[in-house]
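Subject: for your reference before the review

Hello V.,

The reviewers asked for a structural picture of the protein, and I figured it would be easier to keep everything in one thread rather than splitting it across files. Below is the amino acid sequence we used in the manuscript, unchanged from the supplementary table.
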Amino acid sequence: METTELIDVLSRGEDSRHQFKADMTNADALAAEIVAFCNTAGGRIFIGVNDDGSVRGLSGADVARLNQLIANAASQIVRPAVNPLTENVPHPAGTVLVVSIAEGVNKPYMDKNGAIWVKNGSDKRRATSREELQRLFQQAGLVHADETPVAGIGAGDVDMPYFESFFEQQFGESLAQHNQPLPRLLSNMNLMNRGQLNVAGSLLFAKAPQYALPAFIVKAVAFVGTQIEDERYIDSRDITGKLADVFQQTLGFISANTRTVQGEQGFNSQGRAEIPRIVWEELVANALIHRDYFISAPVRVLVFVDRVEVISPGHLPNNLTIENIKAGNSNMRNPVLSSFAAKLLPYRGLGSGILRVLRAWPDVELIDDRTGNLFKAIVARPHESVYE
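And here is what came back from the structure prediction:
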C-alpha cells in the first residue's frame, strides 16, 4: 500500500472492512477482531491510527512487538488458526501497520473461549441467534437448511398420488412394488429426519407445505409504474403449494403481467413473449432452489413497467461472486433440494443457468447484496415503443 492510498482510506473513516486502532497490547482483544473479520467479509486493521483517522504512528519497536502479537493471536487464540498479512506503510506522522484478514473458508471462527464474533458496522458483536449461527455453519458446509426437520410434518402429510407418480417415473417401478415402509423410504431418500419431513421433503412432496413453512412462498406483485406502491397495483398473489406448483404458478404470473409481441405474425396469432421464457425459468428455479432457507422470508417477484425483479433471501454463498456465476461457477447451498429439483423442474444444476439467461436476454443486472442478505436479478423490459 502506498502512502497516498493509506491517506485516502483513512480519510473515509471506519466501516465494516476497515478498523482503526491507536495501539494493541491484548492478544485476546486482537483475536476477537480477527475472528469478526474472518466470519464476515474480511477486512483490514490499521494500527497506529486514532479513531478519528489521524495517525499516531508506530516506532520500530512497536512494529516488532505488534507483529509478534498478531502471529500469536492468529495461531494460538483464533480457532481454526488463520494467517493474516501485515504491511508497514510509511506516513509523515509515523509508520502504520496494516493487518489484512481474508474472509474465512472454515466458518465459524471463534476465540479460545468459544465466542463467535462477527462485524456489526465498524464494530463487532458476538453471534448468538440460532439462525445466524446456522448460517455460519452452513457456509462451512457443516449443515444445510434443506435437511432441517420440519415440526409437525410427517409421512402422513405426503401427497401420495404425486409422490407415487414421481417414484415410478424415476425408479421404473410402482411404490406398491417397492417393499419398504414409507418413512424408511423417505429417510433413505434424505427427505425425512427423525420421523419428520425435512425442509426439502416438505417443499417437494407435502400436500400443503405453506402451513408449516409459511415464509417459504413466493410473493408476486405487478405495479402500475416503476416504483413499489401500497395501493396502486395491477395484480398481487401469494403463491403457495409444492415447489413444482409454485414454480409453474410464478411463471404464469410473470407471463400474465408482461406483454407479447406480434411482430410480423398474423393478427390472430398468439405472438411471442417480450422476454424469452427461459429467462424466467432459470431465474425462478434458481430463486427457489438456491435461496437461503435459514431466512424466514419469501422469494419476491416484482413486475414494473420497465423491469422485473426476482429477489431471493440470502446473498451468494461462501466466496461466490457475480463474476463467478457469470463464468458458470456454482455452489450448492441446498444439496437435497437441488438433486430432486433437477427431476421436477427444468433445472440442470450445473452452474449454467445464469449463462443461459444472459445469452437469451443480456439486459439483466445481478446484485449480490451482502448487507441486506439477498440476491436480486433485475430484468429490463423492452420499451413500449417497441410495440407501437
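For the response letter, the relevant points are probably these. The longest strand covers residues 233-239. The two ends are 56 Å apart (CA to CA).

Happy to draft the paragraph if you're swamped.

O.
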